[in-house]
Structure formats: C-alpha cells, structure tokens
Write a structure and sequence with these properties.
Order of helices and strands: HHHHHHHHHHHHHH
Number of helices: 14
Oligomer: single chain
Low-confidence stretches: none
Strand content: under 5%
Length: 324
C-alpha cells in the first residue's frame, strides 16, 4: 500500500530476517547439542515447549473458530481424517471437507462486511499471480526425490495449504520434511520449540528446517530456498486476491466456506498436537506434569510466552538430566 512491490519485498525482508538468521544459527548449534547428555536434555525441554505452545494454539483457535457445536464437530471430523490418513492427501482432504461442510452448514451465520477498500493492484496482475500460484502448487505434488527442486516444492506446498495462524503449518511441515527422512522428528520438534522464543513470524522455522535437511539443500542454501518457498504462496495469493477482495468478502458462499476451512484447521492442528508433538515430547509422568503446569501458566495465569518458554525449557532440561 505504501511503496508497491519493492515495498512488499522490503517489508517481508525486514519482518523475517531477524528470526530467520537466529533460526539458522540455532540449526548450526543444534547438532553439537545432540552429542552431549546436557544437550539432549535441552532438546527434550524444547520439545515440551512445542507441546505447550501447540496446545495453547489449539485451545485459543478452537474458542475463536469453533464457537458452536456445528463447527466443533467439523473440527473433530477433520482431525479424524488427518489421523487416519497421515499424509499430504489427508491434510488437503480435511481442508476440502471443511470448505464443503462450511458451504452446507455455515451460511446462516452472521458476518459483518467492512467498507470497501482500494488496492494498487490491477485485475490482470491479480489473475497472473493466481495462475502462477496454481501452477506451482500443481507441480509441487510431483515426486522428485532428493533435490533442491523437491525441497522448494515441499515448502511451497506447505505455505500454499496453510490456513489460519502460523502454528497450523506444523503438521504440513512435518509431512514435508520428516516423512521423507530429510529431518528427524527430534530435530523438527527441537527447532519448533526454539522458534517459540524468537521474534518474528513462525514461518521463519523454515530456515532452520532447510538448513538441517539431509539430502536436498542443507546449510545457507537450503535455508534460503525453504524460506522463500514457504512465503511465496502467501505473496502470490495476496496479489491475486486484492483486486477481487471487496467482491469476494461480500459473498455469503465465500464466507461460509472460510468458516468451514477455519474449523477444519483447528482439527488439523489438534491432530498434530497428538502426532508428532505429544507422542515425542511426553515420555514420562514428569513430562506430563510439567507440560500441564506450563499450559495452565500460559492460558489461565496469562504469563508472557517468553517466560513460559524459558521456565519450561529449564524445568524440562533439569528433569531429563535427573532422569538420566
């Protein structure tokens, strides 16, 4: 709005660079941590942080996006689809199911329409951006083995299919990098936990994953590819939607579909809370007690997120070292 496309790039770079650089540095240090007992205990503490943050995200999003029985049931159905079909097709199917159910059951809900806005993007430019978005998404499903193109496709697909808050990308990224064996589940959750203590957008987690990925990418090259690929779909969709936004948001069918999609997103994130987050982080009764205490501290006492992250990491590390 202020400086056109160069302004868009400058805003993205300034908003993303701090956390991306920090995640890249953590990627280089995480390998050394895993070689010591203290380091492994610290990584376990970071997994518990990931559990608490995802649980809080599910709780908050469910209260906002599933305020009635209809949408709560849709979220449960979406979670079941993802858990029974743990692959990208299951996640896409859950989102599509949410849209269809939203069109059927969420049309009569009240929805306010703000005043019309004006954007400096032509309809021709918006159409081209949408075509590019669709083509890249279609190509991203092609199996290409371990290559830089495959790495780009995995992160582009994750960025293109995520709806709602940043935490929703967790199951998509897990399927993209853990399932093919590029990143271990332990490294994935440790990086996700570290991302909670950093400033900036959660999508900067992609820089860490690209840097630690085995096979394709790795290092600064992998981090750069992953970071650009995960943000590119959002940029293309913004450019594509702005010329048509005033028309789209005035249609009841579009509003109903988005309500259904948002409910499905809650179910998708709830499924990720169980697998891989819960199954990897909660290994003992002490882990469960610590996670529960941290969750109450975050949601009921409303303690600052950074404070909860630090306390959970310290307590989780201490508990793991004591058990060892």
């Amino acid at each position: 709005m202020r400086a056109g496309y160069p302004g868009a790039f400058a805003a993205w770079l300034g908003f993303t660079a701090p956390s991306a650089i920090l995640m890249l540095l953590f990627a280089y240090g995480a390998g050394a941590l895993s070689d010591t007992a203290a380091g492994q205990a610290l990584l376990h503490g970071l997994k518990l942080v990931a559990l608490v943050i995802v649980a809080q995200a599910v709780w908050a999003m469910a209260r906002t996006l599933c305020p009635d029985r209809t949408r709560a049931s849709m979220a449960v159905a979406a979670a079941a689809v993802v858990l029974l079909a743990p692959a990208s097709i299951g996640q896409v199917a859950a989102i599509a199911l949410g849209a269809l159910l939203g069109l059927k059951f969420c049309r009569d809900l009240d929805g306010s329409i703000p005043e019309a806005l004006h954007f400096p993007v032509s309809r021709a430019t918006g159409t081209v951006a949408f075509v590019v978005f669709v083509l890249l998404l279609a190509v991203s499903f092609w199996p290409l083995g371990d290559s830089l193109v495959a790495l780009f496709n995995a992160f582009y697909r994750s960025g293109a299919l995520v709806f709602g808050g940043g935490h929703v990308v967790l199951p998509l990224l897990s399927e993209a990098v853990v399932a093919p064996g590029w990143v271990s589940q332990e490294s994935f959750l440790a990086g996700y936990g570290a991302a909670q203590a950093l400033p900036g957008p959660l999508f900067s987690f992609a820089a860490y994953l690209g840097a630690v990925a085995s096979g394709p990418g790795g290092g600064i090259v992998g981090a750069s590819i992953a970071l650009v690929a995960i943000f590119l779909p959002g940029f293309l969709l913004h450019v594509a939607a702005l010329p048509y936004w005033n028309t789209l948001r005035s249609r009841s069918s579009a509003q109903a579909a988005m309500r259904g999609i948002n409910a499905a997103v809650v179910g998708l994130l709830a499924a990720a809370l169980y697998e891989p987050v819960w199954t990897s982080a909660v290994l003992t009764s002490a882990d469960f007690a610590l996670a529960l205490a941290s969750f109450i501290l975050l949601t009921v006492w409303r303690a600052p997120v950074l404070l909860v992250v630090l306390l959970t990491v310290l307590a989780g590390t201490a508990a793991a070292l004591f058990a060892t």
